[in-house]
């Protein structure tokens, strides 16, 4: 019996390892880059049009596998990565089964490009109650495609279907968005630091980023969503901001930061816990992403009823600078927010959108710090007086 009791924890550990390994792993999904073609090829070998099957995916409607360099009229179709991608026709949909952990939050990263319709979009969903439509009308880079992200929270089920659908109904059936590079990452919400009311203020926790993705990942608006691909933060406007990494951009601290791309139309915000009538300091770092973004660069920062512009002016080899905004909290929660003051583009192509980088966001109580300093000063005074009195008495 004793040996069985000793063996039981090991058995439970092995079983928990097997259960956890069943969930989807972070990174590219099975055939998420659409490079694995059906065993029998396609009905039209030149384009893959009319594909009846696609390994790892189920399909509804007209789904076309396109090749890099493929032409349509006078237009060359965009394939974000590799040799293949899929194009979704009117109301066409592809789905991928995912093994998930109950109650966990996942971020989906995918690359998308437009073809010939002006109002193209992709609807991404998990089940009937969790979905969002990502607008592809705005091109943020001159390459003609961008990487996007969307988050969902699993329920009690252990398997879900991740779906991508073209909601459009164009007269030209050859129009439709192109999809590539689908990846998933399980998200964790960091605990706030003892001296910082902001959650994920360093932006280190966020969606999956490919090591060869030089465009970063766009965070579309998620104002009406219960979950966010950037834990703690929401994008509360109708344009995206860009999640960047230190492998391809200049990041003030750590591995990740946020580039504000869209002027007043690209806002990130967070509600932080505060004590009414207490004074606080909002500090953050503002700088350049190192992507040839044209000056001037400036961030508008909000904290409660306070707002202030912070212009980034490079000094020497510096790529960023600290910023500070003091405010008095009026409630138990205070909104902090940031957007770019200007609409900036890159100097090397004048088309790709860019902007200032924000990192290291902190909100801390000035009143508490001042009170602690006063308490320390008073304690020192008390000790000094007591020591003096003792010396007089003994002397």
Give structural notes.
Residues 4-21, 43-49 and 369-395 have low confidence and may be disordered. Strand 9 (121-126) and strand 10 form a beta hairpin. The strands form 6 sheets. Strands 1, 3, 6, 8, 11 and 13 form a 6-stranded antiparallel β-sheet that branches. A 6-stranded antiparallel β-sheet has the order 14-16-17-26-19-22. A 5-stranded antiparallel β-sheet has the order 2-7-12-9-10, with no helix packed on it. It folds into 2 domains: 22-187, Galactose-binding domain-like (Jelly Rolls, Sandwich); 196-395, Sandwich (Jelly Rolls), CATH 2.60.120.260. The protein is mostly beta strands. The chain has helices at 2-22, 366-394, and strands at residues 27-28, 58-60, 63-67, 71-72, 75-76, 84-88, 93-99, 105-113, 121-126, 130-135, 145-153, 159-165, 178-187, 217-219, 234-235, 241-245, 256-259, 268-273, 279-287, 297-303, 306-312, 320-328, 333-340, 344-345, 353-354, 357-365. It is globular and about 70 Å long. The chain crosses the membrane at residues 377-394. Residues 27-185, 198-363 form the DUF642 domain. Keywords: Cell wall, Glycoprotein, Membrane, Secreted, Signal, Transmembrane, Transmembrane helix. Residues 35-54 are annotated as: Disordered.
